[in-house]
Design goal:
7-stranded antiparallel sheet; Beta-lactamase; 2 domains; single chain; 4-stranded antiparallel sheet; globular; 30% strand
Length: 314
């Protein structure tokens, strides 16, 4: 009897927590779509179970088609995570070598994909259709289409060993060692990182008027997918996912702290030193103060007044 009562209390508490999270997600999404914008799909899972799936804004602006949880998006470079798992699956089966040359085409722009959102770009504060690209050329960098809940299902299948065995999944999530011995925060089709001391795996994507992020916290059993059909640097799916993660995990945002940057390190940052789905980091002549920026803002070295680092999106 006591255990049944405790189970009822737990169910009620989880329901209330999920409802509160949904309210926070609604607010975050509303803020993210406050400027020139199209639409966004958000899905959240705990312990492999979807607890939230919502659509916001428009999948097609011209025809006023709303985004729903069933809206399909080009997921861009998140495709790399799926392709990497498929390749490693074939390697485990002895059907492929990691040194083989393979070619494929999945979600091509000429295919008819039901519920597929239209990609947009913001130019001069005006929303326009993104220029046409051939998704067959993008291949693993963007050839897969999915809903936000599809990505939650994919991540749950990975974590449960239904796609590849645990040892292969661990390989996907192991930092890569490049030719000079340097380890980078990227495994097989998987970005690796940390958020307030918590381990993160997943991937980001952008291109063709779409931006996306799949963010998973393996140790906290939390997965977040955010898909947008607009290429606007001021509206970042990664920033949206981070805000949702803070709410879901009870993380209080920390104030940004200035950090001294040794001049010899800044001196090595000449030109474009980082290029990813999230943009380029460039080194400019500057004024001398350190801070981690948003896109378009500057990072300046306090001890190197003649050096400035600026984040610029393509």
């Amino acid at each position: 009897m006591k255990s049944s009562f405790a189970g009822i209390l737990l169910t009620v508490w989880c329901g209330a927590a999920n409802a509160q999270l949904a309210e926070h997600v609604d607010r975050i999404a509303h803020d993210a779509l406050s400027g020139p914008s199209a639409g966004m799909s958000v899905a959240v899972a705990r312990g492999g179970r979807t607890i939230l799936a919502r659509g916001y804004g428009l999948a097609n602006v011209e025809d006023s088609v709303a985004v729903t949880p069933e809206t399909v998006f080009h997921i861009d470079s998140i495709s790399k995570n799926i392709l990497a798992a498929a390749v490693l699956q074939l390697v485990d089966e002895g059907k492929l070598s990691l040194d083989d040359d393979v070619t494929a085409s999945l979600c091509n722009a000429r295919m008819i994909v039901p519920h597929l959102a239209t990609g947009y770009a913001a130019e001069g504060g005006v929303l326009t259709r993104a220029p046409f690209i051939s998704w067959s050329l993008a291949w693993s960098a963007g050839s897969v289409c999915a809903t936000a809940t599809d990505l939650l299902t994919w991540e749950a299948a990975l974590d449960s060993g239904r796609v590849v065995p645990p040892e292969t999944l661990a390989l996907m999530r192991t930092p890569t060692t490049v030719a000079d011995g340097t380890k980078i925060d990227y495994g097989f089709g998987t970005r690796l990182g940390a958020f307030d001391g918590r381990r993160i795996v997943g991937h980001t994507g952008s291109g063709g008027g779409f931006r996306s992020v799949l963010m998973s916290f393996p140790d906290d059993h939390l997965t977040i997918a955010v898909l947008m059909n607009m290429d606007n640097p001021s509206q970042s799916p990664l920033a949206v996912a981070a805000q949702i993660a803070r709410e879901a995990l009870g993380i209080t945002p920390k104030p940004m702290a200035e950090q001294p940057v040794p001049p010899e390190e800044l001196a090595e940052l000449a030109g474009v030193v980082f290029d990813s789905d999230d943009g380029h980091v460039e080194n400019f002549a500057g004024r001398g103060k350190a801070a981690l920026p948003r896109s378009g803002r500057e990072v300046r070295g306090r001890h190197a007044p003649d050096r400035t680092v600026r984040i610029r999106r393509p």
